Amino acid sequence: MGDVSVACFSGGGDSTAMLLLMMERGEKIDGLLVTPTGNELPEVWEHWERMAALVGAPVIRPKGPTLASLIAFHEALPNHRQRWCTRQIKIEPAIAWAMANAGATLCVGLRADEEERRGIISTSVASRFPLREAGWGICEVRAAHARHGITIPKRTDCAVCYEQRIGEWFELW
User: Fold this and answer.
1) Selection from 45, 19, 50 nearest residue 145 by Cα
2) In what order do the strands lie in the sheet with 4-8?
């Protein structure tokens, strides 16, 4: 595949701002790597496609497990003691895709003001953190959304995430 720069894209505020930053700087974005759980709300899919069109890059969906398949495999729901969902549905398929596409660099949307977050942890693939490189924190992220008139969907993670508040479960119902 050659030297490609692929944005790991959840559709949340930080990964969206990362795309906007890269676009503003004229950086090459060869694709938006999304790793669906199989439980996204329709507005998330719409946001993925809208952002791909804005930056002129395709949405890449690597093969990976769904939440339902992993619940069956583990014979358990993900919870605060067994949070295997993010690693197995999102991180591992992204790493596998990058390893299968030599020359790919994964761009990850971690902000400069969240030093404790590590992102994709793998010595097997190249990665970079454009928001950190630019020194962007939450204020710059929100300003980029406003500057481009971007509204982030209310929920961009799994629609049935165990970390939701009661009100969010009620709204989903």
Assistant:
1) 19
2) 59-60, 31-33, 4-8, 104-107, 126-128
User: Tens of pLDDT along 106-151?
Assistant: 999 999 998 877 666 666 788 899 999 999 999 999 999 999 999 9
Q: Residues 6 or more apart from 68 whose CB is under 8 A from it?
A: 38
Which tokens go with 114? 């969240």
Q: How far apart are the C-alpha atoms of 126 and 112, rounded to whole Å?
A: 19
What are phi and psi for residue 162, nearest 5 degrees? Answer: -65, -15
The pTM score is 0.85
Dump pLDDT digits (tens) for 81-108: 888 877 888 888 888 898 899 888 999 9
Confidence (pLDDT) at 123? 67
- CA distance linking residue 57 with residue 137, whole number of Å: 25
Euclidean distance between CA atoms 46 and 26, whole angstroms: 24
46-54 own/partner pairs: CB under 8 Å, 24+ apart: 46/153, 47/11, 47/16, 47/152, 47/153, 47/156, 48/9, 48/11, 51/9, 51/11, 51/16, 51/19, 51/150, 54/19, 54/23, 54/148
